[in-house]
Amino acid sequence: MTDGPWLVVGLGNPGPQYAGNRHNVGQMVLDELARRTGSTFGSRASGLLSRRPQAAVAEARLGMLAGGAPGPRVVLAKPTTYMNVSGGPVAALAKYYDVPPERTVLVHDELDIPFADVRLKRGGGEGGHNGLRDTTKALGTKEYVRVRVGVGRPPGRMDPAEFVLRDFSKSELKDVPWLVDAAADAVELVIAQGLEAAQLKFHTRA
Fold it and tell me: Is 129 an annotated catalytic residue?
């Protein structure tokens, strides 16, 4: 691990009307990480790409090292743009904080993973996820870490785009806090012990 900061981005859409959508689960996870670190999100424009704020950002230390020393530096970010143009804020933040792709973590909803499962990977395809596609284009690489939060497949012939823009169902809601907590744990483990250790834990649990 290096001494440089990590950039952790939760993908989603801005505004209260989207806050409970499946598509916004990444931002729910960032809220949990901010709660754990006692940090507060604020707007950052400061020359990133435009005069308008592009993300809500919190700077913090995540966890503790052996001996009680503060954990790694992290920049927690929630883009304030819509999902399909997430790449600009991610790339701008990575440049501003001098964070390379290997220390950039995107937390996002994933249709191809069962609801309440968490999976992790670096690189690979975007699976039709517009937020990932735009981020890959803006960063010029696929080689960033993804914490993939399973929201399951839409029922019947429902359009996937419609499904992810709906809130979790009543039967799912009881498990959403657990899912968000697990995904936040996954982010912490990636940063503390590396991607392989996190994969070993989350990909082999019953």
Answer: no
